[in-house]
Amino acid sequence: MIDTVPWSDGVWTNDPADVVTDGTGLHVTACEGSDAWRITSYEFIHSSEHALLAPFEPESAIEVQFRLDFAEQFDQAGIFVKVDDETWIKAGVELSDGEESLGAVVTRGMSDWSLSPVPDWSGRLVTIRGSWSGNSLTVRARVDDEPWRLVRVAPLDAAAPVTAGPFCCAPTRAGLTVHFTSWRTTAPDAELHTSA
User: Fold this and answer.
1) CA-to-CA distance for 49 and 31, rounded, in angstroms?
2) Which residues form a coiled coil (predicted)?
């Protein structure tokens, strides 16, 4: 079963510069300098991301879709899964060094970061899926109706409540507006690897 999550069900971690809801979805304008990162390599802690979060239950999955339209270094959007201020995962697409890249940041005290270029995704509808099963979050992504790609398998074994939903950040500029077209919950992935 697939259920649409109303935008009004979420609570912002940090208020965006502007939010407009219309018949096509949610348009979120990020504040200049917004970001989520902890310590690794850069030595700073940023927790100014715009994440619209609702309760995320074990043995379920969330899917967030947005139109990829980035222009400046580190423009980013996707899903944010939060346990607490030091334990969270963000996954989606980010403009890094001039090209759109699919990736994830997994944070457990300190952040890590992985990226894979997807230059042919620009201007298209991107869906990021986070599937929580057992002790892990499996992140997959696709563009339009193309097959899912495995992005990351990360630990997610929390006794505390977990929240999740769409997010965006604009670390280097003002004026980034992300058009989110859907936010849904569904059953978790049946297995990590699909048969050929």
Assistant:
1) 9
2) none
